[in-house]
């Protein structure tokens, strides 16, 4: 069974629009960690954020914000006032006690100038 | 400040050839892993290692071998390349605790013809 689901395959927005990338995860562990990575067109994987299962506080970093809700098993990522440089593939990932990372299939975001 | 280094960046193989993808990290990380990235499928775990001398299979291990003789190095061997192994390969390392992010290499784009 897919442990991390990113239902949005591709999203296009016009510059300065807000956009939310969805992530739904599945785990039986009570302790787990969630991550978001960005993969720009150059191909490298860039770590964005880590959140543990005991901390449901939302986090804001500049134009980025993350909403973690255990009740719905979701860890959504919002970009406010999107910019062309935000165009990339974004991956949500889950890490359980076994130290393995389970990645979603990614959401390709295109920001149109 | 090298981080995770993968070589080569690009490779073309003929069906049936063998080769080794190299991965080295200089962060003294215990945990290392190999992923393949295919369109629409995200990153899938091939093999991983929780320390020198210890390796285990991930989600898609068939056709690949690994060994971990040192903490720093984690090579991935393709025994007899097949077109289905055409992919982008990423090596990752982390401290080996579930709350730490994985650091990725730049990726190797492999084409099997």
What does this protein structure show overall?
The complex is a heterodimer of chains A (113) and B (113). Chain A is built from no helices and 12 strands. Chain A is an all-beta fold and 113 residues long. In chain A, strands 2, 5, 6, 10, 11 and 12 form a 6-stranded mixed β-sheet that branches. In chain A, strands 3-9-8-7 form a 4-stranded antiparallel β-sheet, with no helix packed on it. Chain A has a two-stranded antiparallel sheet with strand order 1-4. The relative contact order of chain A is 0.34. In chain B, strands 2, 4, 5, 6, 9, 10 and 11 form a 7-stranded mixed β-sheet that branches. Chain B is built from no helices and 11 strands. In chain B, a hairpin with a 2-residue loop joins β5 and β6. Chain B starts with a strand and ends with a strand. By secondary structure, chain B is mostly beta strands. The chains are: A mainly beta (113), B mainly beta (113).
What is the multimeric organization of the chains shown? heterodimer
Low-confidence stretches of chain A: none
**Average of per-residue pLDDT values of chain B:** 93
Shape of chain B: globular
List the helices and strands of chain B in order: EEEEEEEEEEE
Question: Would you count the extended β strands of chain A for me?
Answer: 12
Mean pLDDT of chain A comes to 92
Please compute the radius of gyration of chain A using only Cα atoms.
14 Å
Brief descriptors of the model:
heterodimer; A: four-stranded antiparallel sheet; B: 113 residues; mainly beta; seven-stranded mixed sheet; 0% helix
Question: Summed up, what is this model?
Answer:
The complex is a heterodimer of chains A (113) and B (113). Chain A is an all-beta fold.
Write the layout of secondary structure elements.
The complex is a heterodimer of chains A (113) and B (113).
Chain A: E1 4-5, E2 10-14, E3 19-21, E4 24-25, E5 33-39, E6 46-52, E7 59-61, E8 64-69, E9 74-79, E10 88-95, E11 101-103, E12 107-112
Parallel strand pairs in A: 2-12
Antiparallel strand pairs in A: 1-4, 3-9, 5-6, 5-10, 7-8, 8-9, 10-11, 10-12
Chain B: E1 4-7, E2 10-13, E3 19-25, E4 31-38, E5 42-51, E6 54-57, E7 64-66, E8 76-78, E9 87-94, E10 103-104, E11 108-112
Parallel strand pairs in B: 2-11
Antiparallel strand pairs in B: 1-3, 3-8, 4-5, 4-9, 5-6, 7-8, 9-10, 9-11
């Amino acid at each position: 069974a897919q442990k991390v689901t990113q239902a949005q395959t591709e999203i296009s927005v016009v510059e300065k629009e807000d956009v939310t990338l969805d992530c739904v995860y599945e785990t039986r562990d009570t302790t787990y960690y969630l991550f978001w990575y960005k993969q720009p067109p150059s191909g490298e994987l860039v770590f964005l954020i880590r959140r543990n299962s005991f901390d449901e506080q939302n986090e804001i970093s500049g134009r980025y914000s993350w909403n973690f809700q255990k009740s719905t098993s979701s860890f959504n990522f919002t970009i406010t006032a999107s910019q062309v440089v935000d165009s990339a593939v974004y991956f949500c990932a889950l890490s359980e006690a076994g130290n393995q990372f389970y990645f979603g299939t990614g959401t390709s975001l295109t920001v149109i100038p | 400040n090298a981080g995770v280094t993968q070589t080569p960046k690009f490779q073309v193989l003929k069906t049936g050839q063998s080769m080794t993808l190299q991965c080295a990290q200089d962060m003294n990380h215990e945990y290392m892993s190999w992923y393949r990235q295919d369109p629409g499928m995200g990153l899938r775990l091939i093999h991983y290692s929780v320390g020198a001398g210890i390796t285990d299979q991930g989600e898609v291990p068939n056709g690949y071998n690994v060994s971990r003789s040192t903490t720093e190095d984690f090579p991935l061997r393709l025994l007899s390349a097949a077109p289905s192994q055409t992919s982008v390969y990423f090596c990752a390392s982390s401290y080996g605790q579930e709350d730490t992010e994985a650091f990725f290499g730049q990726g190797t784009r492999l084409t099997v013809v």
